[in-house]
Amino acid sequence: MLVLQILPPLLWLGQIFASPYTLAPFVLHEKRTHTPKGWSHERKHLASAVLPLRFGLKQANIDKLEDYLYDISDPSSPNFGKHWTPMKVANTFAPSTESVAAVHEWLSDNGIAKERLRVTPGKNWIQLDATVEEAERLLLADYHVYRHESGQEHIACDEYYLPEQVAPHIDIVTPSVHFDTVVHLQPMSLDTTILKSDITIVNETYPGVDHCDTQISLDCLRALYNFDYIPTASDLNSYGIVEYTPQTFRQSDLDLFFTNYSIPELVGRPPFPVSIDGGLQQTFNQSVPFIAESHLDLQYGMGLVTPKLNVTLYQVGDTVNPNTSFNNFLDAMDGSYCTYEGGDDPSVDAIYPDTQPGGYDAPPNCGTAKPASVISTSYSYNEADLTPFYVTRQCNEYAKLGLMGITILYSSGDYGVAGNDGDCLNEDGSQTSNGTLFNPTFPGTCPYVTSVGATQVAVGNTVLDPEIAAVRVTSSSVFYSGGGFSNVFEIPRYQKNAVDAYLKNFRTENFAPAVYNSSGTSRAYPDVSANGANFVVAADGEFILEWGTSASTPTTGAILAMINDARLAAGKGTIGFINPTIYSASFREAFNDIKIGSNPGCGTDGFNAAYGWDPVTGLGTPNFEKLRKLWLALP
Ligand SMILES: *[C@@H]1O[C@H](CO)[C@@H](O)[C@H](O)[C@H]1NC(C)=O
Ligand SMILES: *[C@@H]1O[C@H](CO)[C@@H](O)[C@H](O)[C@H]1NC(C)=O
Ligand SMILES: *[C@@H]1O[C@H](CO)[C@@H](O)[C@H](O)[C@H]1NC(C)=O
Ligand SMILES: *[C@@H]1O[C@H](CO)[C@@H](O)[C@H](O)[C@H]1NC(C)=O
Ligand SMILES: *[C@@H]1O[C@H](CO)[C@@H](O)[C@H](O)[C@H]1NC(C)=O
Ligand SMILES: *[C@@H]1O[C@H](CO)[C@@H](O)[C@H](O)[C@H]1NC(C)=O
Ligand SMILES: *[C@@H]1O[C@H](CO)[C@@H](O)[C@H](O)[C@H]1NC(C)=O
Questions:
Q1: pTM, to two decimals
Q2: Any ligand 4 atom below 6 A from CB of 289
Q3: Which residues, judged by CB distance below 6 Å to any ligand atom, belong to the binding site of ligand 1?
Q4: Can you give the pLDDT at residue 635?
Q5: Beta strand extents in 58-200 (DSSP E only)
Q6: What number does the ligand 5 atom closest to the CA of 180 have?
Q7: Which residues contact 479 (CB under 8 A, 6 or more apart)?
Q8: Does 550 qualify as catalytic in the annotation?
């Protein structure tokens, strides 16, 4: 948070209360730089109107989160692999009783009766129904009503302050500067390009490795990544794939795929279903756009690890709520996440019970689902769709899952340096197709997930040739591996050397450094990559081709799940948060460095793939056998 030592003139109005806090210096807590696109200022809010003020309390020890995570995931640390129990994670970060007391004291010193305050059971936030007049006095803020083009109204202030003694205990106050996403037109995006372009039907399937430049099969991936492994420790192991309703799957299509590409044992085998917030396989529409993502993820995710390992399918959200998001999934993984720092954001996340017809009319799932050891998600937002507060809170949760030994994979996006649908940033933070600034993908820019980009077998090449960065251009769509630099997250130390080397040696002259965060101080992505081109998928009784980092991510997940199998079989723990390990010198030899290709977008040719790490294909594609040996040598 920006800290500013000031005594605003308004402060003197507070003197009549003669409290120590009103005389203490206030510090600026949050400030918004612009009014989001589509919204306009309507009027000053009524002084007597009631605001549901919520004070999200700072978690204890959150400043040590990164150190804790390195301590157990840096291969050179003596505590490598000593993952934490969920209980230890919850206890370590629960807000302290001092924080609750400090906020209580401040409010009661300012004339707010204790009976008006409500503290959640987890002591994570304090709620107060305050008049606008009270809120403005407490926060030195001015509340206004804003109106969206669609007619929706929103209450917000431009900035707010907190007393110096109270500020360290509070992370966020709502409602305040946040607009969060605009109206919820575009939820997170599926990272497969099939949905945005014509469907290519495959008339003849080719298992084996003879057509991998035009049709990817399970055999192509096994050959490309030296990945021929039969698991032996499945009862200890788990691999989870996350899908958001209305994406759904049909068993008959899985069976069709496994009949033509895999072994008979897989035919008739469903994934192991875990329902979150009413998640189910919807049957109201199973046309290609509604099954393309689930079928891609399941056919390849399952095909590369089964029949021995059952893949868990986390199906998130009911069929009618368009707002279900990563936070709803994380709530189910970790009961403490449901509430901390104010909990989910009603303007971004689905809020349950959902009382609309057909909605999941029950409390949200909190801590009800067990996280699998490797979790693959092929959906993404643009970092700029969400506020820095929102993405930071969610990113910290990925670090906590890392502490528990869970590996989190997200696709890096399908639009090169541009955001979903090819939108780019403008100086004011808005996103348009004619924007000129690069538009990074979230959660790929969170330093605590592993971001997966896409490669392909160049046309005419075989699985024995080096791959190139993925590229697909049709009359109706383009697909390039998402990559670049965050505008929010600082560079994690595990990738500092790799990113420095890229910026020093391979900075391209094709565009100005001002179009992206070229400071060298921000998180760069992706971390790794895998093939994402020409995946043959059974959908609606036919075979079609799909492209995208959506394909690369479950493929990488399957490989990592099998590394876990090898370690579990040897009596070792799961690999957990892998980034400090894979960027270490010895592991970099276990990736096939991709040196050809780029990721155009925002009117530029994008970054170039290059020797070593690059913001197109990361460290490169995995060599399973090399990785297995290296990981087996770790404690
Ligand atoms: C498959 O057959 C259809 C109909 O004959 C044709 O339109 C399509 O181009 C063929 N697909 C490929 C990949 O050749
Ligand atoms: C799928 O496999 C069956 C049995 O081998 C074969 O008859 C059929 O032609 C295959 N489908 C395609 C589209 O190649
Ligand atoms: C996987 O699922 C199948 C079918 O439900 C079951 O028979 C098998 O025991 C499961 N395997 C493991 C390792 O859980
Ligand atoms: C199913 O979805 C497709 C694609 O959006 C649409 O064209 C079709 O009309 C829908 N079918 C039904 C029955 O709603
Ligand atoms: C989804 O979010 C929007 C924007 O906050 C909200 O207006 C809408 O009611 C939400 N929909 C549901 C079903 O909760
Ligand atoms: C970009 O497009 C928007 C409409 O989407 C338009 O209002 C704006 O003027 C355009 N900006 C430039 C620089 O062309
Ligand atoms: C670049 O990233 C850093 C995070 O390391 C951030 O503090 C800074 O504001 C970003 N710069 C721009 C121009 O977005």
A1: 0.89
A2: yes
A3: 200-203
A4: 96
A5: 118-119, 125-131, 144-148, 153-156, 159-163, 170-174, 189-190
A6: 5
A7: 193, 414, 415, 454, 470, 471, 472, 473, 532, 547, 548
A8: yes
Instruction: Please check whether residue 317 is in contact with residue 365, taking contact to mean a CB–CB distance below 8 angstroms.
Output: no
Q: From the CA of 204, give the closest atom in ligand 2.
A: 14
Asked about 427 being catalytic, the answer comes back as no
In the annotated binding site for Ca(2+), the residues are 593-594, 612, 614
Rg (CA), the chain: 25
The alpha carbon of 467 and the centre of ligand 2 are apart by a number of angstroms equal to: 28
- Rounded Cα–Cα distance for residues 251 and 508 (Å): 47
* Residue showing tokens 């790799």: 498
How many Cα atoms are found within 13 Å in the side-chain-facing hemisphere of 159?
13
Q: Say how far apart CA 191 and CA 553 lie, in whole Å.
A: 10
Atom 14 of ligand 6, nearest CA residue: 434
Two tokens at 263? Answer: 């072994």
Instruction: Tell me the backbone φ, ψ of residue 207, rounded to 5 degrees.
Output: -65, 165
Average pLDDT value for residue range 255-273: 94
Residue with token string 């279903």:
273
* Measured distance CA(27)–CA(177) in Å, rounded: 15
In tens, the pLDDT along 583-628 reads 999 999 999 999 999 999 999 999 999 999 999 999 999 999 999 9
Beta carbons of 563 and 628 less than 8 angstroms apart: yes
Q: Decide: helix, strand or coil at residue 25.
A: coil
Active site residue 191: no
Q: Which of 282, 212, 286 is nearest to 541 (CA)?
A: 286
Q: What confidence tens digit (pLDDT) does each residue in 519-567 have? A: 999 999 999 999 999 999 999 999 999 999 999 999 999 999 999 999 9
pLDDT beyond 60 at 11? no
Alpha-carbon distance 506 to 322, whole Å?
42
CA 268 to centroid of ligand 6, rounded, Å: 52
pLDDT at residue 20 above 90? no
Cα(438) to ligand 7 centroid in Å equals 13
